[in-house]
Amino acid sequence: MNEYSIKYFSTGEFAALCNVHKKTLFHYDDIDLFKPEKVMDNGYRYYSTYQLEVFNVIYTLKDLGMPLKEIKEFMDKRTPQNVVELFTYETNEIEKEINRLKRKQEIIFNKIKVINKAKNITDKIFIEKQDEDYIILTSPIDKSKYPYDTDTYMSHLDYCYSNDLYIGYPVGSIKTIEDLKSENPYDYSYYYTKVNKNSVDENVIIKPEGTYVVGYLKGYYENTPTIYNKILKYINENNLTIIGYAYEDVLLDEVTVKNINEYVIKVSIQVM
What we know:
Elements: E1 8-10, H1 11-18, H2 22-30, E2 38-39, E3 45-48, H3 52-63, H4 68-76, H5 80-117, E4 126-130, E5 133-137, H6 150-162, E6 172-175, H7 177-181, E7 190-194, E8 204-207, E9 210-218, H8 224-237, E10 242-252, E11 264-271
Antiparallel strand pairs: 1-3, 2-3, 4-9, 5-7, 5-8, 6-7, 6-10, 9-11, 10-11
Helix pairs in contact: 1-2
């Protein structure tokens, strides 16, 4: 190719084309990563149009987090096969990052959804048709550890986080029919967390769709017996039969409010 047909750019012009600072080009020259095609006797550096693509590869690799030292080693020994292997690796890493960000987005979306549910609560007890949910239960709670079975609770959290099951929903509590009949109003059988319906974990079960009697408590956990009493009274007065668990969902907690009296807890008991 005739040299006079090649377009050359000064350091400032080439930096502007690549949307970087001139100091970046000076640094890359100093470490022998990317050198100008021509250096004049007066020290002026000039880059050619043919170097644009090479620089873009370097800057793309840098943007992907590859250290400059590794980029230099790659550029010095690059072959078609090396390029394919590197780009395949980086594609997989990008896919992992996309999945990580999607999961973070899902967590934030679900937190917003839970908070918004607390905006229109009522002090009335009512019947609600609920869709099925996918949840993961703890092992049975040790009821002797009042008010919380901390070991079971923390073990559950650790399991959810380490297996990527956590998607933004607070840990809830479950009462069985036997718990509802217990003289101890603070008897619970399980903690649980709502998970993605696509979860393949063997411990995931389905909270059944159906008819639930629902009530909201505004206040701290120690006041939950009051809402259970109201719900059970409603069930008896309307000749309904309890056929499933009572699910206790926390809508507002210490994450969203400063005053514990502003907590919002939703209790749902399956009936027919």
